[in-house]
Design brief:
Layout (H helix, E strand, L loop, with lengths): L3 E5 L2 E5 L2 H10 L7 E3 L7 E2 L4 H4 L25 H4 L27 H4 L5 E4 L3 E4 L8 E5 L4 E8 L2 E5 L5 E5 L3 E3 L6 H11 L5 E9 L2 H5 L2 E10 L4 E12 L5 E13 L3 E8 L11 E4 H8 L9 E3 L1 E4 L7 E12 L4
Antiparallel strand pairs: 1-2, 1-3, 3-4, 5-8, 5-11, 6-7, 8-9, 9-10, 12-13, 13-16, 13-19, 14-15, 14-20, 16-17, 16-18
Amino acid sequence: MARWLVTQGDHQFSAADLNELKQLAQSGSVGAGDMVQPPGTSDWLYASELPELAELFSDSDAIDDDDWDMPKSRNRTPIMAVLLGLVAFGVYGMWDYGQKLPSHEDLEIIGGTTGMALTEMIASSNTGIRAEPNESAATVGSIEKDQTIQLLGKRGEWYNVRNPSGAQGFVKSDTVVPAYYFADADTRQSYDPIYNPDRYVFVKNSSWMQLPDQREENVTIFQFLLQNKSKFEMTDIKLLATIKDKNDRVIETQEIAIEGAIPSHDGVMVGTLNPSKDTPDGTPRLMTTSELERLAKEDGSLMSRWTDGVELAMESEGFVEANIDLLQVRAIPKEL
């Protein structure tokens, strides 16, 4: 169901659909100066700016600069005058009546002003935590409306989260409000990679091959570069290998977990650290070159066990196309 989010000061709730939103506006529960996020968007607008609601508000409900000095009712939000110039860029939220929104120069974490850490979010409704990022996956926990939860990563339209009880899994991104929504435009831009890390990490120069002896064992070698275009280090990397036949039909997929991190504004290759001769049955470790370099500082012999690229044992035969795509990643917060 397409939900509409409504923010009033530091309080947030949702309307199940447009009809319910209109009813709330007609009853006075939603005012002209309240912030509304339409379903399927990331922008916040004044309720009076929505064509579907504009006719429900009288002229006396219009937002006025005089509202800055003193809130005259629950629907008069004094901070709105400051935010008017930001509407064109998408206003995501506000924090408290009469307070100046925090700027990134003042923050190590947003918690310095709001009590929320950069990797925290507020649940906008009661919802279940799924074991996998899909609606049909088993429920492994739950979050309650207005509860603070921890951000662990992002996969498509799903956030990987942990609730206060320790349950860990996935929730849809539109069921939570990230901490940086309660900050100014500069802060949101600076911290966007925390909540949308997948927009800043790219798989580059991807290629694959099968040598004759590998073809007999149906082993494929993937080589690629991971590029990070953000100011944050990225980790908890998961990739998806997609195998297609000559008819461009997907015949196999494999999820690949990569150890290590991608430095900020940098790119790294990915390779395989093979087991030592003492543990021939050990499991190869897939990692970034930066992680190998870190480990090799304490054990230089690791370099002799390193091979470029990722080897995958495929179940399908006769494929003609193999792609590597980013599946999940997490930004590591730091002081800006």
